[in-house]
Amino acid sequence: MNKRISSFHVGVAAEAFVAAQFARCGYDVSVQYGANQPEYDLVVVKNDQLMKVSVKGSQDGQWGLTQGFKKGASYHEAIDKWLEKHHNRTVFALVQFKGVTLNEAPRLYIAFPSEIAGIMKSSANKRGDTILYENKVWGAKAVGYGTVDKIPDFWKFSPERIEEIFEHI
Q1: Low-confidence residues of the chain, pLDDT below 50?
Q2: Are 131 and 138 in contact (CB under 8 A)?
Q3: Is residue 2 part of a domain?
Q4: pTM of the model
């Protein structure tokens, strides 16, 4: 997508894509309409199991998740505070629109908050960061020089990943 859109529109589009993909995989989906719902945006149902899904959309290759917890805290402490806010049964669906044209689907990932926290703590050569990066190569002047922060391939949205998540809820 070439034109940047508002964060509100990114959020609405992200929720719609995630709901549609779960439905395409044969799951029942209940949507809480409106951005910034408490704890979760969607409920996905498999038989009698429920999965609460918090959707985060992005159009710049990264998701800012813990900035609100950084004041007076180290990166790792901010990540821990963020993690404490999320129920262990809530799952994050990360939607990336960067480099995606209008006739293409965005890249989707699914992860538990604890998995996200682990990746964020290892970011920038283990210093940590307030941002989860889809794929960042740290430059020569950065504290994370020589490292690459990347979403794990196994987080990619797939029927297999969904089943794996349901097994751990």
Answers
A1: 1
A2: no
A3: no
A4: 0.93
